[in-house]
Design a protein that fits this description.
Blueprint: H1 2-8, E1 15-17, E2 23-25, E3 31-37, E4 40-46, E5 50-55, H2 62-68, H3 71-78, H4 83-101, E6 114-117, E7 120-123, E8 131-140, E9 143-152, E10 165-168
Antiparallel strand pairs: 1-2, 3-4, 5-9, 6-7, 8-9, 8-10
């Protein structure tokens, strides 16, 4: 609520969940999304529809790699210096898009393709021109967390707090 007060002048707010369980801020011009993982909770607020996900780099199962990643993503993960971190980077982007969309992980994640190169996020989807993606690495209590954000194409820049490393689409 401090972000709502500081940036939007809103001192009282209410949240509801829509029919798919997505949190909705009861406000005519603002959108909200939340994510949590072991040790961290994040909240994203925007004047545009928004999705956010957060994860620490963690071990993944080979079956997850095949079921949620495109062939290009699998190659990128397997050739990475840190396969777990790369998988988490790609996973959080897919999850942020799914949360923006409202379908979450029920979407066919292997059909939501990304390529990460030189601190850039490339969304290789037919609808790519309609989205902006942001990804940051935040250290909290000495542990790194990957935070990914998906928004409708922005008319004005996003404001981010507490990211130590930041990548954009």
């Amino acid at each position: 609520s401090s972000v709502l007060q500081e940036f939007y002048g809103i001192s009282h707010s209410f949240l509801l969940r829509d029919e798919q369980g997505k949190p909705q801020l009861i406000h005519p011009f603002l959108h909200i999304n939340m994510a949590h993982c072991r040790g961290l909770a994040v909240c994203a607020v925007s004047s545009q529809p928004i999705g956010v996900d957060a994860e620490p780099p963690r071990k993944f199962r080979a079956s997850a790699l095949k079921s949620v990643c495109t062939t290009l993503e699998q190659q990128q993960i397997q050739s990475s210096n840190d396969e777990n971190a790369m998988f988490s980077c790609i996973w959080t982007l897919k999850e942020a898009y799914g949360k923006w969309h409202g379908g979450g992980i029920r979407l066919p994640l292997a059909e939501i393709p990304f390529c990460l190169s030189e601190a850039k996020i490339h969304f290789l989807h037919p609808d790519a021109d309609n989205f902006d993606f942001f990804q940051g690495i935040m250290t909290f209590d000495g542990k790194p967390y990957i935070i990914s954000v998906c928004t409708s194409k922005m008319q004005k820049p996003c404001i981010f707090h507490d990211f130590t490393t930041f990548y954009t689409s």
